[in-house]
Amino acid sequence: MISIQDQIVLITGASSGIGAACARVFAQAGAKLILVARRQERLEQIAEELGHSSVHLLALDVCDRSAVESTLEKLPEPWSAIDILINNAGLSRGLNKFQEGDFQDWEEMIDTNLKGLLYLTRYIVPGMISRGKGHIVNLGSTAGHYTYPNGNVYCATKAAVRVISEGLKQDLLGTPVRVSSVDPGLVETEFSQVRFRGDGDRAKKVYQGLTPLTPADVADVILFCVTRPLHVNVSEVLLMPTDQAGSMLFNRQT
């Protein structure tokens, strides 16, 4: 196990869910945190909760390539040498048959789940290579392994995250920069609230009758990946609740 004390960790989607949980566990491990999300107020709440002196907040839409580029270029010197990038920002919109899909939903998922990840990674990885160290963690999903009905485009974006992680690892071969894809199943976060556009009753049904993963469960796995000895690369982790076996197989207690 290696220490990440004083390493600079950039976390996207840090205002809630898995991103906020990562902020908590990495702060406890002594890392310096760059927390990225669109909601400045939520970021400030997380920073206050952490009570952690080494936190830099960036209110940023990762889908905006020019904003990503200019924001990263303007990072103050103490924050510019990013050691660990956690590409956590992502979402799902709707649960429709392909032929009934909403174009705006598709574009939002592709922009956030793919383009945002691509932009951050493209701008940060060259610095990691030049410094001779770094780790990229991409948040995928079991949806990228097991397509489910009405999940078409969301599943496609998460399958793409898995392929991008594999391709990035191949392109970085010969450098010390490591790449991990962490692909969780059912995690109780705001995910279903976002998917169903605030329909709380429908969102609750997703988790009824079983014990889902928590954001902290996933954050612990991410911390495990980045604290392995430098000769060890955890390329892919597929994790699910004990009550889940695939995208559509659940043990629900009624």
Automatic annotation (TrEMBL):
Gene Ontology MF terms in the entry: oxidoreductase activity, acting on the CH-OH group of donors, NAD or NADP as acceptor
Keywords of this entry: Oxidoreductase
One Pfam family named in its UniProt record: adh_short
Domain of life: Bacteria
Sequence similarity: Belongs to the short-chain dehydrogenases/reductases (SDR) family.
PANTHER family associated with the record: ALCOHOL DEHYDROGENASE
Name of the protein: Short-chain dehydrogenase
